[in-house]
Amino acid sequence: MTIKIGDKLPEGTLAEFIEVESEGCSLGPNTFKVSELTKGKTIAVFGLPGAFTPTCSAKHVPGYVQHAAELKAKGVDEIWCISVNDAFVMGAWGREQKSTGIVRMMADGNADFSKALGLDADFSKFNMGTRSQRYSMLVVDGTVKQLNIEAAGKFEVSNAETLLAQLA
């Protein structure tokens, strides 16, 4: 079953590569409970098939980096990019995309969270296994308030501009 507007996010964990050690976060991969991270926050979440892939690298992540200040001005506390990659890859991709400190690059290594959302996709024909569909959502205190799921092979509704317009 696919998540829909009005649903609470499912229980799950995501991993993030932490560049700078701080209280409660050690250097390297750290695992976080989604329910704890979303509590009392407004989060712009976008999911995509994979780090370092063409559309994801050329359009999807750069759009959220470019529009981050506007999203935050409209009440977004954090921006997350979720992909079925490991935290090391997501950390390296975040550095390459210059998104560190702007977009949290969240790893869903085994696609467990994507599957729980009902937004997993079979990319076996591309030798990529199970991945995430391309989507965006606005999450307020763990509840989905906006949801934009792309048709296969498309990049039309999960961009930062669409989510920004929905916040107006």
UniProtKB/TrEMBL annotation:
Q: Which Gene3D superfamilies match?
A: Glutaredoxin (3.40.30.10)
Catalysed reactions, as listed in the record: a hydroperoxide + 2 glutathione = an alcohol + glutathione disulfide + H2O
- Domain of life, per the record? Bacteria
Oxidoreductase as UniProt keyword: yes
**GO MF assignments:** thioredoxin peroxidase activity
Q: Which family does it belong to?
A: Belongs to the peroxiredoxin family. Prx5 subfamily.
What name is this protein filed under? Glutathione-dependent peroxiredoxin
